[in-house]
Amino acid sequence: MSVYDLIRKRRTVRRFAQKPVALETLKQIVDAGRLAPSASNLQPLEFMILEKTRAVQYVFERTRWAGYLPPDQGKPAADQAPVAFILILVNKKIRAEGYGADVGAAAENMILTALEQGVAACWIGSIIDRADIKSELAIPEHCELDSLLALGYPAEDPVAEPLDDSVKYYRDEQGRLHVPKRTLAAVLHVNGY
Questions:
Q1: For the segment 88-117, what is each residue's pLDDT rounded down to a tens digit?
Q2: Which letter does DSSP use for residue 78 in this model?
């Protein structure tokens, strides 16, 4: 599948099959993040893979999911929870501010690499008590927990649709997630606005 086809296929997944993702696959996903563009080539990002059940459960309990959905439709139930996480850390000794573009580029590289392997992802920035997670996982003080990727094989198939009047994603009567996206015509300007 071409990169463009992967991008068109990519949707955030919040329901996962309870099948482990191989550690080698997770390492390949992190390697794609490592190779992402970095401002001034400073490379302040570091990554932590969590694939052991206890660690995954610990972090899962400290995340918020799908703010537009009712609580019973947002966060996955235990039998559809992610089976792995990749934490995106910023080494503040290397870069203390202005690293947002680095994080975005690395996250998208990792999400697309995961998808190429059949692994779905949900990029999460809504983390409850980052300090608690840092302490539990012995993350050094000079590293900031920016965000994380929840990962696993998909147990749902969200669909993109043209945005009408609301950006809010929703589940239909069958439970399928619908994600409104602005059309190309709505966002593209050629040779001027």
A1: 999 999 999 999 999 999 999 999 999 999
A2: G
Considering the chain, what is the average pLDDT of its residues?
97
Residue 71 has pLDDT above 90, yes or no: no
Q: What is the predicted pLDDT for the residue at 193? A: 96
Q: Which two tokens stand for residue 55?
A: 């660690």
* Cβ-proximal residues to 27 (8 Å cutoff; 6+ apart), any chain: 49
Rounded Cα–Cα distance for residues 26 and 161 (Å): 30
Burial of 15 (0-12, 13-18, 19+ CB in 10 A): buried
Spatial contact of 45 and 88, defined as CB atoms under 8 Å apart: yes
Structure tokens at 97: 């501010």
SS3 call for 151 = strand
Please state, in angstroms and rounded to a whole number, the distance separating the CA atoms of residues 56 and 60.
Answer: 6
